[in-house]
Amino acid sequence: MTIPKRRRKFSGVAAVSIVLLAIAVLIWAWTNGGRSPVRDIVQPVPVPELPQ
């Protein structure tokens, strides 16, 4: 009877740790979101000339 209780406890600990990890990632993304502004990326692209 002790084995099912351990499995339930482990799955509960795993679920709580996953939720806490997700919250930590969301907090990090929220605070880190404004550090570098979004800018346009402009690159020249060589285009072959059309035959005439």
Quick recap:
Helices cover 60% and strands 0% of the residues.
List keywords for this structure.
1 helix, 52 residues, mainly alpha
User: What portion of the residues fall into strands of 2 or more residues?
Assistant: under 5%
Number of helices: 1
User: Which structural category do the helix and sheet elements fall into?
Assistant: mainly alpha
The value of Rg in angstroms is: 26 Å
Helix content: 55-70%
How would a crystallographer describe the biggest sheet?
Answer: none
Descriptive overview:
It is a single chain. It is built from one helix and no strands. It is an all-alpha fold and 52 residues long.
Topology (elements, then pairings):
Elements: H1 2-32
